[in-house]
Write a structure and sequence with these properties.
Helix content: 55-70%
Strand order of the largest sheet: 2-3-4
Largest sheet: 3 strands, antiparallel
Radius of gyration: 20 Å
Structural class: mainly alpha
Number of strands: 5
Number of helices: 9
Shape: globular
Length: about 230
Amino acid sequence: MSNKFTVTTGNKDTSELNRLTRLIALHDIWNRQYHSTVSSMFEKYKSIDEWSQDELMKVALCGVKYIKYVADIERENQRLDASYNTLFAVKEAGFNLIDALFGIIGRIKLNNLIKIFPIDKEYDGDKWGCKDYFFTMDVLKEKGLDNAVGRDGVFDLMWDYMNKDLREFTVFYMSCMSAMYKQQTGVGMAEKFCEDNNIGSYRVDRENGLLIDNQSGKITKMSNKPSFMQIVK
């Protein structure tokens, strides 16, 4: 994915600008690190089957971090500009990259996966009825810490693996899948789910600043306050 961003500013303290500038810098760093690492691996080996666990772990870490910052950039764009839409080409490239990373992560033994993606240190899941450190460890032990889940097992694993970076990675993957589904069918996956289950949903007319109820057709005017700062591609 080609992502070059600049920041334009207005009257606001510099702490926000510094935060966004740092975000962009980290995106670019992990972008270069991921692509240079993958290039060096394919220069060294003819097949991914020859990669060691350490090499698989390095590529997986760089790839997940890169996608995390792609997702962070998208989120900031949407926060700063309600009319912002990520280009379909970016979503498509993101889907293909993540799909390739699933093939890599699926080869990493689970006890090694924990080393590069430590489980979130949250231990009170039973109290709140949610997944936590203990839940994740139980899932990993059941699968076998000395085993790898394989390409087809990665997606399911991501839903049970409590790690912030992997969570953002998986959510962005779902976003990319939805964009591709919408390109083919005209509706996003979430819209389709709501339609099939009689759940109220809305669509946004960003050009005219309107929120439209898909069931009743009711139109609501959206707030369109100008932003002091915008990340542009």
